[in-house]
Design goal:
Layout: E1 3-9, H1 13-28, E2 37-43, H2 50-54, E3 61-65, H3 72-80, E4 87-91, E5 95-96, H4 101-111, E6 115-123, H5 140-148, H6 150-153, E7 174-176, E8 183-187, H7 188-194, H8 206-216, E9 220-231, H9 241-258, H10 263-285, E10 297-302, H11 304-313, E11 319-320, E12 330-334, H12 341-350, E13 357-361, E14 367-370, E15 379-382
Parallel strand pairs: 1-2, 1-4, 2-3, 6-9, 10-11, 10-12, 12-13
Antiparallel strand pairs: 4-8, 5-9, 6-8, 7-9, 13-14, 14-15
Helix pairs in contact: 5-10, 9-10
């Protein structure tokens, strides 16, 4: 077995459906991976009917079912204990990968034996680059710059934007410190030395911790910009107090485990938490604008056969623009023989200036998914 793919699911059955459709295409795109890839989906006690909906559809996938939500780290480790591939891909369910994504990353790793793990360039549901695709180690000052807002003020600074390695270009391959847990392709031999995810971390640090341990085992983490994927929700940039406290807890936990959390670190981060709390309090004083309901006027692009099938299945409330996309406020990409996932990802990146909303329908699916903002939950439409 060359590749083991591990996906943890919790109540996102339609996003997972699109993800698995893209994974199947990526496997079929590489002759070496056909019949030499295994896929695990660990379901953390979903209540949305995920298993009933997906099991019959993806018969090659091995579903592991938990009777409770055991968390991200433990669920991944459950499948890792059963995985037999030379490479392990940890993948989020709210992602869509290009047909060449796995092949490009595997080729990079086979060419450079010192690379222990690869990550890829990620975009959100609007086509915008996700900064968490590449990150630096969360040292005392790095964490302070992020939490204090200095990283956002100086996004390309080698010093202030060191958490997201803002000085490194998003379209260039490079060695990095930290990879995102949304897509981590890791050598099994490296995981044999480091172990899987540390189950003591609750949020924001499982991937940081594993990335750090990979470098401690004398491997490199590598950011591959030659291929892009969609990560619909991404890391929220809405810095409310809940986020700030969780981030502080995770960074403090990481420092205690690996570096030694100093009094200075604790003081600096508490200062950052205090300053962010004041910003959050001031923002809460502003009057909340009610969202205006916008009728979706959708233009369908892609495989002609799937477009026709989709038109018959769309809810009656949907308004389809048939003559030109200039009149539409939403694009629905219909994947199929005439439009690949790779081309969809490319078109979404090219269209960021147009301020359109995007949704995706895989040719072998019964749903449409999309996300207008990385700050909010995505939208899914059953067909």
């Amino acid at each position: 077995m060359i590749l083991s793919i591990i996906i943890v699911n919790y109540n996102v059955k339609y996003f997972l459906e699109q993800c698995l459709c893209s994974v199947e295409k990526a496997i079929a795109n590489d002759v070496q991976l056909i019949d030499r890839t295994e896929i695990f989906v660990v379901d953390n006690h979903s209540t949305d009917g995920s298993l009933e909906y997906l099991q019959y559809k993806f018969r090659a996938v091995r579903f592991l079912v938990n009777s409770e939500n055991v968390g991200f780290a433990k669920a991944n480790n459950q499948a890792l204990a059963l995985a037999t591939g030379l490479y392990i891909l940890f993948l989020n369910p709210d992602t869509i990968i290009a047909e060449d994504t796995i092949a490009v990353c595997l080729s990079t790793m086979k060419t450079h034996s010192n690379i222990g793990a690869t990550g890829v360039r990620m975009i959100d549901g609007s086509g915008s680059f996700l900064k968490e695709s590449k990150r630096g180690f969360p040292s005392t000052w790095t964490s302070f710059y992020k939490l204090s807002g200095l990283a956002a003020l100086f996004p390309h600074s080698r010093l202030f934007a060191s958490y997201y390695l803002g000085h490194l270009k998003e379209n260039e391959n490079s060695n990095v410190n930290i990879l995102s847990g949304a897509f981590m392709l890791i050598r099994k031999e490296a995981l044999d030395k480091t172990g899987g995810f540390d189950e003591q971390f609750f949020m924001y640090a499982e991937d940081i911790d594993l990335s750090y341990r990979i470098t401690q085992a004398r491997y490199e983490n590598y950011y591959v910009a030659d291929t892009s994927i969609i990560h619909f929700k991404g890391e929220s940039t809405k810095k409310d107090m809940k986020y700030v406290r969780q981030f502080y807890k995770a960074m403090n936990q990481f420092m205690r485990k690996h570096i030694r959390s100093s009094i200075a670190f604790t003081y600096l981060i508490q200062m950052a938490v205090w300053s962010r709390s004041k910003i959050a309090a001031l923002s809460n004083l502003r009057p909340v604008k009610k969202k205006t309901a916008v009728i979706a006027e959708s233009f369908l692009i892609g495989d002609k056969k799937n477009i026709e099938l989709l038109k018959q299945s769309l809810p009656t409330s949907s308004r389809i623009i048939v003559d030109t996309s200039d009149k539409a406020n939403e694009i629905i990409f219909c994947e199929g023989p005439e439009l690949s996932f790779k081309e969809i990802i490319h078109q979404m990146q090219e269209g960021t200036e147009k301020k359109l909303f995007y949704k995706i329908h895989a040719g072998n699916s019964h749903s449409i998914v999309g996300s207008d903002s990385k700050n909010e939950n995505g939208e899914s439409i059953p067909l």
